[in-house]
Amino acid sequence: MTDLPAAWHAALRQRRELFDLADPHTCLRLLHAEDESMRCDRFGPVCWFYRYAAGMPTRDELSWCESLTSAAGSKHWHVHGMQDRGRDPNSRRHAASAAAPAAWHGDENGLRFGLRAGSGQSPGLFLDQRDNRLWVRQHAEGARILNLFAYTGGFGIAALSGGAEQVFQVDVSRSYLDWARDNTAANDLAHEADRVEYSAVDARLLVAGCRKRGRRFDGIVCDPPSFGRGRGRRDVFRIERDLADLVRACVDLINPGGWLLVSSNYEGWSQARFEATVADSRTTLEPAPGAGADFRSGGSKPLLKSCILRLTR
User: Fold this and answer.
1) Is residue 25 helix, strand or coil?
2) 122-177 pLDDT, tens per residue?
3) Domain limits for position 91
């Protein structure tokens, strides 16, 4: 540990105060704003580093990654390059410890999630949504929950484990929905298959179809990417252009007293600008739990913006 930068030492001390690192499956943000060129998520036995610098990691950086991984109680690490691939699409750089697994599991609030290397910038779980997922779990009993942009199904699985009557997992990617099915089985919820419906379709098309058919939900989760493509060449989602209309359409689907949890990591918005964008006169706006303390190190503000819209009329 003596070769770690001082900021990494400080981050580790703070995380030990917040989390039980002795639990080999705990997931948390281990390194956040302490280092501008590196972030790190601990996904149980694997530490996943996000490197914001050009070229391959240096020998010192790899040594630091090895030391932090060991000090955090994990066994393996991956370093994933996060350069601007729009400027140089071949610039992605990835490194990993010897025998680092391609697939493994991590735990969050008693739920287990499958994680995979080689599946994009994240191995399958966005940890800044941990507290929001817990909120959904605590407000899902007996409810019909629609999870838009489901990714690997985290919000839907949280709702199912919280006693939701019906969960609808929606994502344009069939492979992500297959991953969501695997996560459902990993939590011994496969026997609840009759309570889960999977739809591989553009979220906007599904919402429009629900409006047409009069389908309603008690809770909706809307966590869209800042930019995304559907199956058609023209099926492009741009959050600064499309989120407000999508939110209004979602509000049309909420049962009286129901809620819409909406969130975004779009860097161009502050929390205030985000709330102004999603505000709807038919709802009251309530704060969402948002990102946890591990994403607020050094007084930094997390990228995640989120709120809850509750239908009042």
Assistant:
1) coil
2) 999 999 999 999 999 999 999 999 999 999 999 999 999 999 999 999 999 999 99
3) 6-116
Q: Which residues pair with 67 in a beta bridge?
A: none
Query: Which is it for strands 166-170 and 144-148: parallel, antiparallel or unpaired?
Result: parallel
| Cβ atoms of residues 64 and 4 within 8 Å | yes
Cβ atoms 180, 116 nearer than 8 A: no
Sign, CA dihedral 151-154-157-162, equals negative
3-state secondary structure of 305: strand
**Residue at 122 is within a domain:** no
- The DSSP secondary-structure symbol of 47 reads E
Residue with tokens 């499309």: 242
> Is residue 148 domain-shared with residue 219, that is, in the same domain?
yes
Per-residue pLDDT reduced to its tens digit, 84-123: 544 554 455 789 999 999 999 999 999 999 999 988 889 9
pTM value is 0.93
132 and 180 in a single domain? The answer is yes
